[in-house]
Amino acid sequence: MSSSTSTLESLFQALRVVGSNLIFIIPSFLTVYFLYARYSSPLRRIPGPFLASGSIIPRLLVLKQGRAHSWDQDQHKKFGPIVRIGPAHVAVSKPEAISQIYGVKTKFYKSQFFLTFSTYDEEGLVPDPFVLREREMHTRMRRSGANAFALKSLPSYEKNVDKVIQRFIANADQKYVDRPCDFGRVAQNVIADSIFAAIFGNDQRLIETDDSNNVSLKIERYMNWATITGVIPWIHRYFLQNMFVFMCFIATDNMFQAGIDISLAALARIRSGNVAADVPEEGYDTMLRKLAFLQHDKPDLLKDREMMIHTYGGVIAGSDTSSTALRSIFYFLLKNPETYSKLCDEIRGSGFTVPVSFADASSLPYLGAVIREALRIHSPVGMMLPRSVPAGGVTIDGYYLPAGTEVGISPWVLHHDPNVFPNPERFYPDRWLTKDAEALVRMNRSFFAFGHGIHTCIGQHMSSMMLTKIIASMLLAFDLEFVNPNENWHFTSRFFTYQHGINVRFRHIKSKA
Ligand code: HEM
């Protein structure tokens, strides 16, 4: 027998032994790997669920099941303010840590979780401020978008939102009045049309078509998928960056391209001076038009692709979050009839008419409190806003976290802390109208629905403009009631919290007995 044959035979024999013992080898390997991840890390002193400390699988399962909001709260109740929720993942619940992790001077940066929310064009990563880890580019984007998103710019976009509200009311008899309807869908359609109208002038006419292409469902599926894969970011290279795989598994058409096409068409109209369809009257504007004029005056400040991401990125970041807020607002108002009546009294006693202007709607204190309370009790973001610990590591609450650790705070955890919000499960808008200045400072410090610091939501004023106008106008024209008052909604919580099962009827106010 030649030596090469005997070497081959020994090799096959070794493989046979390995094969027949795989049942022992794989679990042993996984156990060693788990114990290594669990105990070799500098995070080993941090309390947390045993399995999660050595493996990312428990966190993945929680996100897959869509129960991030309650799982995070449970872990803090059990283990305290600092919890190890993954091999290199730490959740914090202390309001004092907000400015350290997120503040304007922070050195923490967006964690790899956000890779799965990134998009790419021929120049590479599209500089969406929401995903940018690179500080200089992020500052440039915030600066170039500042004026277009600013509070003072919003009145110039209002006319287009007014047109959406008027169309909603004109369609209501045929679609919603005196018949059951899915308020989740109504909210999505009216918000998405409003946001498109404010940004581009033209909108998708989802109110009329009832989103017949199910774009919102596709975005929901994409967001859910992106959250789950965000926990294992290396997978991004094989899935979302690969358009073929992305189209087959996630989207049935390219919804991002549709957003870009709408931006480009509106931009072409602006550049040709043909904006009659986008800008209803002299003195009014759209966000895209404002950005285009800025670019004209300061070409170095804003490239075309940056203008695109400010606009269609705003649609993506703003429509699901704002419609989630609108759903919560009406759900909690209807579940708590005394709050509903109090709000109706304020709005109907104001003397305002439909469509209510932003200036008028934002002068109503109880309406402001209702919106803030709904964002508190059901934050549209359902899990911690993850960040990476900077070079050199940090110490939080006495625990050392090495560079690269993923760390964050969940709005759900802060917003349901009974020490800050007494009786946190109660929908109680009046808590925001308290005369107790210290309590108000404490609550505001823990209010985290829009994040905090350098990445704080740039669209929060835009969201407030849409919500205040839409709610005030809806309640001037209609009453709402549950089809079945005993029915509860159901929702999933991953990065976003999507609610379903809010079945309501609209009634004309005068037709109510
Ligand atoms: C109730 C509605 C909204 C909620 C609850 C919300 C929530 C948030 C949160 C929590 C963040 C911070 C994410 C992080 O720190 O990792 C954020 C960022 C952002 N939001 Fe909103 N948002 C809302 C509406 C909007 C609207 C209407 C727009 C645009 C028109 C918008 C555009 C953005 C953008 C561009 C960012 C990234 C900012 C940056 O990283 O510099 N959002 N939002």
UniProtKB/TrEMBL annotation:
User: Needs which cofactor?
Assistant: heme
Q: Where is the signal peptide?
A: none
Q: Origin, by domain of life?
A: Eukaryota
Binding sites annotated in the UniProt record for heme? 457
The question of whether Ubl conjugation is a record keyword is answered with: no
State a single Gene Ontology molecular function. oxidoreductase activity, acting on paired donors, with incorporation or reduction of molecular oxygen
Listed A to Z, the keywords are: Heme, Iron, Membrane, Metal-binding, Monooxygenase, Oxidoreductase, Transmembrane, Transmembrane helix
Q: Where are the transmembrane segments?
A: 12-36
- One matching Pfam family: p450
Q: By its UniProt entry, which InterPro entries does this protein fall under?
A: Cyt_P450, Cyt_P450_CS, Cyt_P450_E_grp-I, Cyt_P450_sf, Cytochrome_P450_monoxygenase
Family to which this protein belongs: Belongs to the cytochrome P450 family.
Q: What is this protein called?
A: Cytochrome P450 oxidoreductase
Q: Which organism is it from?
A: Cucurbitaria berberidis CBS 394.84
